[in-house]
Specification:
By secondary structure, the chain is of the alpha/beta class. The chain has nine helices and ten strands. It has two domains: about 190 residues, Rossmann fold (3-Layer(aba) Sandwich), CATH 3.40.50.1000; about 60 residues, Putative phosphatase, domain 2 (DNA polymerase, domain 1, Orthogonal Bundle). The longest helix is centred in the middle third of the chain and has 17 residues. The two termini are about 25 Å apart.
């Protein structure tokens, strides 16, 4: 059973706050209304990669003589790509100009490439949710600001190769999130239609990209967002992957009813 409080404003934007009872895994009704395509962010959405990102950032900071940044802080620096992570880490540890960034970035990428999945793990319930969506015939894709080679390496290291119809990183195009073209290109690469797609992410970058693309967005409240998930303006918030399929079903059904 799903308890839902919803509001549909005059612009057609749907904002739903969902609370799930112990019956959240009940499949009744879900098969009736799921999107054709679900696109996921990677870091902070499917995978808690903060331990390995923290280690790589601190190696890069040490390479330019800066102090380490604590893991809790790094969680909220992620989402704009490797260079932005370096810039934010430097800003918290004494600052640095372009020359410093140019030295720190290769150190970060070299270390992280070799340690992309030392301690990174899928969030609880993520693999079961991916399995259930695939079994229901939903096409899956990844849209991340992580460099695409690192995204593919992490996906492979987790044993997820073949799960996703498309995986576009922050360097796959001339633009990246929050530019909606990144998300739209991911949907197209997966063979999807934006009108029958839902995006799942964890930061305001993801919400902005989805809004610009005209795609509904579910916010992962357990991720790396730097503000409460309920304040990001998503269409729904989940706090565990057990809630994903009911949220997708409810949101897809609401959009379908509004379209008629």
């Amino acid at each position: 059973m799903i308890a839902a409080i919803g509001r549909l404003d005059m612009t057609g934007d749907c904002h739903i706050s969902l609370a799930f009872s112990s019956g959240a895994n009940d499949s009744r009704g879900m098969a009736r209304s799921l999107p054709d395509t679900v696109v996921f962010d990677l870091d902070g959405t499917l995978v808690d990669s903060s331990p390995d990102l923290t280690a790589a950032l601190n190696v890069a900071l040490a390479a330019v003589g800066h102090p380490a940044v604590d893991p809790a802080t790094v969680r909220h620096l992620v989402g704009h790509g490797a260079r932005a992570l370096i810039e934010r880490g430097l800003a918290l540890s004494g600052g640095g100009d372009e020359a410093v960034i140019a030295r720190a970035l290769p150190a970060f990428l070299d270390y992280y490439s070799a340690h992309v999945a030392d301690a990174s793990l899928p969030y609880p319930g993520a693999e079961a949710a991916l399995d259930a969506l695939a079994a229901a015939g939903v096409t899956l894709a990844i849209c991340t600001n992580k460099p695409v080679a690192l995204s593919r390496s992490l996906v492979a290291a987790l044993g997820w190769s073949g799960r996703f119809a498309a995986n576009l990183g922050g360097d796959s195009l001339a633009v990246r999130k929050p530019d909606p073209a990144h998300l739209l290109a991911t949907i197209a690469a997966a063979g999807g239609n934006p009108a029958r797609t839902i995006y799942v992410g964890d930061t305001a970058v993801d919400v902005t990209a989805a809004r610009g693309a005209g795609v509904p967005v579910i916010v992962a409240g357990f991720g790396f967002g730097d503000r409460p998930a309920a304040e990001m303006g998503g269409d729904a918030v989940i706090d565990h992957f057990d809630a994903l399929l009911p949220a997708l079903s409810t949101l897809a059904g609401t959009i379908a009813r509004d379209a008629h």
